[in-house]
Design goal:
single chain; alpha/beta; 7 helices; globular
Length: about 240
């Protein structure tokens, strides 16, 4: 049975992706803070392994990956997905605590998870695996008033490129999926804010389409890698939007 850890698995893209992989018969490590949601998923799927963890806690992240490895014997894929979109504004309006939290979750949390996955994949036998980072269209172009989110997502592109390079010697592939406006609660909030501000909200797409794109990347043979994939609502404006 193929195995994957999905961070941010309790909601949004993470949950949709977890449910798809579970349905496809993968052993799925569900990593998030929401114990009730993870346990509910695990009750319905015998191949689900709840890993109640805060991705910003290095000790907790290390323990969660160790638990998963002990139960499955192997980690084939990490979907490095956990992230937040803190309250927006121009740079002088963004609260420092929102900047620090964005960096802590969106960058530090993804670094810590990738670090543990890389360590396991490097030393397991047979060696290797795949890390898929969840970037964003904001890794290419920003939304208005999102300097904290945009900066962290651009940093994820650097993380992806470095992991892709450094992983070659160990059979570790790294790719990034940049998703534009999958219908999650975060995107719904942005839609509602646009309407409240008298603006036309951007088009959206089903979150299941993002999940299927992750499954495609994860299912490739070891000799192939999608290093960067962009999947977005067909009529979504690209320039200046994330």
């Amino acid at each position: 049975m193929k195995s994957i850890i999905i961070t941010g698995a309790s909601s949004g893209i993470g949950r949709a992706t977890a449910e798809l992989f579970l349905a496809e018969g993968w052993a799925v490590g569900l990593l998030a803070r929401s114990a009730d949601v993870l346990n509910e998923l695990a009750e319905r799927h015998k191949n689900a392994i709840p890993l109640v963890t805060d991705v910003t806690d290095p000790t907790a992240v290390s323990g969660a990956f160790e638990t998963f490895q002990n139960e499955t014997g192997r980690l084939d894929v990490l979907f490095n997905n956990a992230g937040i979109f803190a309250p927006g504004g121009t740079i002088d309006e963004i609260q420092l605590e929102d900047w620090y939290q964005s960096v802590s979750v969106n960058l530090n949390g993804m670094f810590l998870s990738a670090r543990e996955a890389f360590r396991i994949m490097r030393h397991q036998a047979p060696q290797g695996g795949r890390i898929i980072n969840n970037g964003s269209i904001a890794a290419h172009v920003p939304r208005p008033n999102s300097v904290h989110y945009t900066a962290t997502k651009h940093a994820i592109t650097g993380l992806t490129r470095s992991l892709s390079l450094d992983g070659r010697a160990f059979g570790i592939a790294c790719g990034q999926i940049d998703i534009g406006n999958a219908r999650t609660q975060m995107v719904q909030n942005l839609v509602e804010n646009a309407i409240a501000g008298g603006q036309q909200p951007d088009p959206t797409m089903a979150v299941d389409d993002a999940a299927r794109s992750v499954l495609h990347m994860a299912s490739l043979p070891a000799e192939a890698n999608v290093q960067f994939m962009t999947v977005m609502a067909t009529t979504m404006p690209y320039i200046g939007r994330g």
